Amino acid sequence: MSTAILVTARLKSIRLPRKVLKPILGRPMLSHLLDRLKEARRPERIIICTSPLEEDRPLVALAAEEGVDCFQGDPDDVLLRLTTAAQRFGVDTVVSCTADNPFVDAEYIDRLVSFHQERDLDYSITEGLPFGCFAYVLSRRAMERACEIKAESDTEVWGGYFTQTGRFACGTLPVDEDVRWPDLRLTVDTPEDFALVTRIFEELYVPGEVFPLRAIINLCRSRPDLVALNAQVQQKAARPIKVKRAGRSESA
Fold this sequence. Notes:
34% of the residues lie in helices and 19% in strands. It is α/β, with parallel strands linked by helices. It has one domain (3-247): Spore Coat Polysaccharide Biosynthesis Protein SpsA, Chain A. The strands form 3 sheets. The chain has a 7-stranded mixed sheet with strand order 5-4-1-6-8-7-9, with helices on both faces. Strands 2-3 form a two-stranded antiparallel sheet.
């Protein structure tokens, strides 16, 4: 059974333009994420999933520089882009994460893949990691079914097709208490988010090494001034999903 990490990446961000290529200590943020993902043992490959648009061509170049695969698919239909990439590369189990989350944890990727495959689930997620440190694990067959039932082409947020429709087997893996902090925001959408991530790297990064999630947690617990940098940032609400029902579209 083939397993791969699919990294959703575009350069169209508005609140923080071209954020995934913004440098942190001399390297693009996305390159730091790839360093972390390469620590995972269960996936056999990493695929950056972007678009064929001119504005996203630097991501194709970065993939080549970092020695990972690249797929250029639908610019707006993210679920379709990921599904088509899985088909193109013959991937049965997809680990999905986004390029604006530089601290996705490799240890929990491996744990979640095992959890997902042992239970033959369609969709799996961890519960309790800081926001921006987790990935999703999906079966390609389930992704193909979700593409058949969705009634829209803008699927930037697509998890609801699996969790809200009652058509898929979903599972949740709890995390260890020493890394449980779901209210800690470690994603990058705004300048404040980027400032926090940069400060964490300044405190912990050693070139050529990947510092563990536990080190990030311990640092943030000891430094409330760091956590305060993006404490006021509000996560954008997800759009309701729309599914096909008896020849018409309905929100779920």
